Amino acid sequence: MPIFKRGKIYWYEFVFKGERIRESTHQYNKEAAREMMSGHRTRLAKGEVGLLPQKVAPTFKEFAPRFIRQIELDCKEKPATVKFWKEKLNNLLAYAKFADVPLDRIDKAEIDEYKQKRSRTISRRGTPMSPGSINRELATLRRLLRLAADWKEIGGVPKIVLLAGERSREFVLGREQESIYLDTLPTAMRPLAVLLLDCGLRLNEALTLRWSAVNLQHQPGYLTILKAHSKNSKQRTVPLTKRVRQMLLDRQQGNGLVFHNEDGSPLYATWLDQQHAAVRAKLKWSDDFVLHSLRHSYGTRLGESGADAFTIMRLMGHSTVLVSQKYVHPSDEVVERAVERMENYHLVPTGTSREDHTLPTKSTTTAKRRNAVNTSK
């Protein structure tokens, strides 16, 4: 069809003197797009515009260095992220049908063939590559093609559908498991694990935490997380629990890193991952239990305690409340309590301060329900 949609935008395509013309109208209205196509055809027929030589798109291999330079610029404060994109890009470049062809020749058929090939590839563990690993490569391909489209190297980006069946690590450390885990950890690693559990920091945030960001002068104290995780995240303060406060008081304070080796050198995530994996194997727990699960457990506990999504977003430093919402599962009593607060707020008598108009300590509706159950017994 001469008029078609890509996302919400209409494009047109037609052939003039053997040359294919395909352009975006930047319009959401189909009739407006049709008029733009008609006008283009008319101008070509009248000779008011000439056909420009068709731009040759760069090959994947030619465009890759430009992509990496942009990644290094966008993620200059996150070397681990840059390393991640480079690794995935190298996997894509190893596939000849991508590396040596122009970017505008990479279509859905080529992408599907790549997914099939990678699904048959054996990983270092001796098992087929997981959907999650393949999806990270597809995400890299999608980002590269979108960048090429933004820079007008190609006309559009083919739809890239990720593989289903990607495993989501949603392990939550129970209270009984927590004691067992902490007791089994190496002594040097235990304080860091307590911080991750009780403050919900990302591992990198904990490893780069400096004493200048720790405030123990006021009860219970707090941490100031200065380094942003993404361009949308902001500086945040995280209150301390009693055991984190005591743990910090027991450590030798200074001006450097809070967590470090005995010689003062920084701890590395790879060593911590190895220690954690050894403990997990010893306890015979699920492989889904990774270090990040400690932060996930923190968010889950906040949600179970009644914290709303915006509070969780602020404490955990999420870039959007949509991420925080997965931790919120309000009980019936929490819901009823919220309605009571709203009702009491609007029923405050004239001339009475809202501070004097307090709520009952328990949900009235819930109490009535419990009394009804007890009476029936």
Question: Overview of this structure, please?
Answer:
The protein is mainly alpha-helical and about 375 residues long. The protein contains 16 helices and six strands. It has helices spanning about 30-45, 60-75, 80-95, 95-100, 110-120, 130-150, 175-185, 190-200, 205, 240-250, 270-285, 290-305, 310-315, 320-325, 330-345, 365-375; strands at about 5, 10-15, 20-25, 215, 220-225, 235-240. Helix 2 runs antiparallel to helix 3. It is globular. The chain starts with a strand and ends with a helix.
CATH fold annotation of the largest domain: hpI Integrase, Chain A
- The mean pLDDT is 84
* CATH homologous superfamily placement of the largest domain: Intergrase catalytic core
Shape: globular
| Biggest sheet statistics | 3 strands, antiparallel
Would you report the number of β strands?
A: 6
Strand order of the largest sheet: 1-2-3
Q: What is the correct CATH architecture of the largest domain?
A: Orthogonal Bundle
Radius of gyration: 28 Å
Give the count of structural domains. Answer: 4
Category by helix and strand content: mainly alpha
SS element count, helices: 16
Question: Approximately what portion of the residues adopt beta-strand conformation?
Answer: 5-15%
Termini separation: 71 Å
- Text of the CATH class of the largest domain: Mainly Alpha
